[in-house]
Amino acid sequence: MSVATQGGLSVVDVNGTEIELMEAGKGPCIVYLGSCHWIADDTNFQTALEQHAHVITPRFPGIGAAKDKNNLNSVDDLAYLYLDLIEKRGLSDVTLVGASFGGWVAAEMAVRRSPALKKLVLINPLGIKLSERTTRDITDFFGTPDADLRRRAFMNPDAAGPQLRDLEDGALRARLQARETLTRFGWSPYMHHPRLKQRLARIQLPTLVLGGAQDEITSPGYARSYASLVPGARFDEINNARHFAHIEQASAVAERVTAFAR
After folding, report:
1. Which of 90, 89, 85 is CA-nearest to residue 105?
2. Is residue 4 a part of any domain in this protein?
3. In a domain, 14, yes or no
4. pLDDT of 67-104, one tens digit each?
């Protein structure tokens, strides 16, 4: 695994795929997989985590300056990519944390049972189909106007951060790359893996699932049902928060996550 540094980020090559990597803080080791959504900025949550833990945050392939030389195209590919990253870094006793799309990837990693993983936290995860085939469990990100997405995803859309038109070029590029990444990995079948629901029973890690009490991106009870499929998982609800609870209630969610990690 080769490492280069660009603008404060490490660019890491894992078996031919480059990813950007941020690392900061001291304490229990947390690997955080973000929500990968163009209307969401996880920076405040990462900062809150770093006050209590050693946090490693890999970006998804294709976001930032890194190049995906292997043309990965499935969440399975992402799960193995980050498991390889953890192994090649020699990490152990890792608390794996994933939010929204990152929660889906984290769940796929956990069903594969790496000895480096110690605990699992899923924050409003995506990735499973609960309803029958014609009933939507997850909002159509690509067919819903951004203003409506913000209202569904945040209690206070105006507090969710700047809109795309107000971003400087570098930040705008990363947001549009996130949109492309979601399309690439989650388009079909839409934002889920048909086998993941039954495979969640393979997870053998102490698991905490957090769900925003007012989430309108997923169907009612989605996160709670997710937790019920993981053996021994605990479900906690975050009040006054919708889908991006970790952004709206960054400090409170970070405290829950790091307390669980310890």
Report:
1. 85
2. no
3. no
4. 776 789 899 999 999 999 999 999 999 999 999 999 99
Question: Alpha-carbon dihedral of residues 153, 155, 156, 160, nearest 10 degrees?
Answer: -40
Give the up-direction half-sphere exposure of residue 102: CA atoms within 13 A in the CB hemisphere: 27
Q: Domain count of the chain?
A: 1
Both tokens of 242, joined, read 């919708």
The residue-averaged pLDDT of 133-160 equals 91
Helix (H, G, I), strand (E, B), or coil: what is residue 44?
A: helix
* Joined tokens for residue 148: 């409506």
**Residue 129: which of 219, 209, 215, 242 has the closest Cα?**
219
Q: What is the pLDDT of residue 8?
A: 54
Q: Are 192 and 200 in contact (CB under 8 A)?
A: no
With H, G, I as helix, E, B as strand and everything else as coil, classify residue 165.
Answer: helix
Measured distance CA(170)–CA(172) in Å, rounded = 5
C-alpha 6/C-alpha 125 separation (Å) is 30
The CATH number linked to 201 is 3.40.50.1820
